[in-house]
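Hey, can you fold this one?
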Amino acid sequence: MSNNAQSTRVSRRRFLKGSAVAAGTAAAGTVAMPNVSRAETTVLKMQSSWGATGIFQDMARQYTERCEKMSGGRLKFDLLPAGAVVKAFEVQNACDSGIIDCAHTVTAYWYGKNKAASLFGTCPVFGIDSNQTLAWIQSTQGKELYRELVQDILKLNVVGFFTMPMPTQPLGWFKKEIKDLKDLRRMKYRTVGLATDIMQRMGMRVTQLPGGEIIPAFERGVIDAFEFNNPTADRQLGAQNVSKNFVLASYHQPAEFFEIIYSKKKFDSLAPELQAICEYGAEAASTASLGMAYDRYSKDLQGLINEDGVSVSRTPDSVLEAQLKSWDEVLVKLERDPYFKKVLDSQRAWAERVGFFSHTNTADFKKAYNHYFPGKLKS
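Sure. Predicted structure:
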């Protein structure tokens, strides 16, 4: 036998011996480690602030389904619609007290506890869109400011995560055409969050109502006009049956997001990997929900126009100018609160930097749209 052949045989024996030892070690490790896929399933009772058949409930389900799949069956969500346990505006209190484990809602619905809540939802129009604002909320500073508000200031037993950068919300539905600012004076109007302050300062009489109460109030004349959120949700409410004037592209709610909240006691009881799934599942659902929004909102806008005979227009410039002035005046007063000012300063700095990049870098997509689809957009 040659020296090379003998060396090869020795090397092979060493390899096989090493492999056997490694396999034995791995087997021992397998016995020592728990089989996580067979761990007990935790059922979480989640209530949303949305009706059972609405698109927002579909988006809540996108979140729960992703968390369940990523957990390998260790998490199960019992997703309930608004009113199943508590009213739409009461889910935060229910999480705090442990009546429910978690909720799918928006911060504007607990705006009455602290107006800074709206800075994480129906926030000021600083020239950036909802995607860019959500990036601020999910930054280290944004997360800490939210935690400070919920846990330190309001003393709530709640943790929360954000998802779904909503497209700009409509000015809303009106029983007559809106041509300029004077058409809104003294009108009884439904909105939520800081938008209530903005529209009141413009001379409107504003009330906050959950989605399910809007159309009955509109039909009875309790309100003269309203905004809810988007063409799909508004069409599902039946807005087109009581009004034919739908006005888009307002500054009163340039951005909003879903807030997914948990009872902190319940959340802390979950294994770290399940906590991570609950947190980062919100990011996964964000992409899915925005995709659903673009698909369904665009289809329903066409349906409102072509099937329901709705007249769709954009917010008049005089109203937009008045909204910007109103934002300025409202924020000056609210900034007297040190915490509100701290959050607003952080948002402003973010918007100034990110907005400069975006407006300098982003191509004129409207020009390209007009090139390929001439005549579709109104001048």
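The longest strand covers residues 42-48. Let me know if you want another pass with a different chain boundary.
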